[in-house]
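Field reference: sequence -> structure
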Amino acid sequence: MRVSDLLGNQPTLSYEFFPPSDEEAQRRLAETLEELSQTGPSFVSVTCGAGGASHDRTQKIVVDICNSQPFPAMAHVTCVGHTRSDIVALLDNYAAGGVVNILALAGDPPDGSAIIGDFKYAFELVELVRSHPAGFCVAVAAHPEVHPRSLGRNSDRQHLAAKLNMADFAVTQFFFDVDDYVRLLDELAALRCDKPVLPGVMPVIWPKSVRRYAEMNGSAVPEGLFSRLEAFSGRDRIEAAAEAAWELCDKLLAAGAPGIHLYTLNRCEVSRLITNKLPRHKNTIS
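Structure field:
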């Protein structure tokens, strides 16, 4: 199932996972996937490491999900640090494994080192994925508050529109203000780009960690929300984080978002609480 075929009149629900680094993390991911699969997601996605890192763990998880679940998995593919032959071989393996959805990303050089390999920008990867005979559904990343390495807002939007026009849809980096999402859509529309943009929502279970991610991604942190969540712990924080994230999801859907993409951090509790409050979503089960 191509994710682009699911983005229509009925909102989608999707989850993002990351590859586990040890046996305990592997067990937790398996439990989270099993729990959240019961919500009937439209699709899930699996991240990969910084530029130059191996895609092997991501590939195994994505192929396993596609061959064991009634919903598709989308593979994150980064190109910085890789050769064209590396990526072609990876795409061949995904096609052979029944994977049809790819999120094409530039990726960051490991440890801030100089960019090596055959790629510098994500649009170069989009072009390569598009040329593959498997006919992949291609997604790209969008930053509502502009990319942290952008030269300016106008330049960022022009590059995003050009990249998105080559793809099927976009998934955003996490953000906390619905106005940033609406402004992004308006700016893309002004550039004659009307491809679907799926908003990514990060529940703030661990404020300290999310602050660090926000600094890396150029996302503004709402201090009132974070201060309130930092005052809670345990179950109280999970419930408060879920409520805050649901309120953002509700506003995004009211603003016309085609669905919600939840960053799970490989935990199921808060995602399940949010999902229980969302309207019925489009999935591949019903």
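Note: The chain has a mean pLDDT of 92.
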